[in-house]
Write a structure and sequence with these properties.
Layout lengths: L1 E4 L18 E6 L6 E6 L4 H11 L5 E5 L10 E2 L2 E2 L3 E5 L15 H17 L4 H17 L7 H12 L4
Parallel strand pairs: 4-7
Antiparallel strand pairs: 1-2, 2-3, 5-6
Helix pairs in contact: 2-3
């Protein structure tokens, strides 16, 4: 699932919203694992969102979005060519769950609400620190309390993977 919003502001209907007024947070949510990846972006447009998808989603993945025009994924390509994504959409002006396909964006919306609460608790309104707070939300979605008995050891493992010793 793909979603986006403005940190500290309600993200409702995007029609008429200035796409250049950032920073924005764009995100991906994996239903199978609960992993939530959030990215600080300065421009909320189709090109920016498509770059996040091509960099973080495998070809032939099912992607669920609302029907905002920036999510036109029919011809999305990565370095290897056509990504051949299965793209389900839901029109929030009519339903929050598509009655035919069952498609919905409720998981990414819930993940975004949790992320915003973390930003409020940690004072994550600084532009300079926003991406680090979003990274923490990602880390917690993969290594959080429900997935690890010893968070310190999981953090050490994550650091070791990121910065391997030679």
């Amino acid at each position: 699932m793909v979603g986006d919003g403005v940190p500290g502001r309600f993200n409702g209907n995007y029609d008429g919203v200035d796409e250049d007024r950032g920073p924005w947070a764009a995100g991906l949510y994996w239903v199978s694992t609960g992993e939530t990846r959030l990215f600080q972006v300065e421009k909320r447009d189709g090109g920016t969102l498509k770059a996040i998808i091509t960099d973080n989603v495998l070809p032939q993945t099912k992607v669920v979005t609302d029907e905002w025009r920036g999510y036109n994924l029919e011809t999305l390509q990565d370095a290897a060519g056509d990504m051949d994504l299965e793209h389900d959409t839901v029109c929030h002006e009519v339903n929050f769950v598509d009655p035919t396909t069952g498609a919905h964006t409720q998981n990414i919306e819930q993940a975004w609400q949790k992320a915003k609460s973390v930003l409020v608790r940690t004072g994550g309104h600084s532009r300079a620190l926003l991406q680090s707070h979003l990274n923490w939300v990602w880390w917690a979605s993969v290594n959080g309390r429900t997935k690890c008995q010893d968070p310190f050891l999981r953090l050490v493992e994550a650091v070791a993977r990121q910065y391997p010793q030679k």
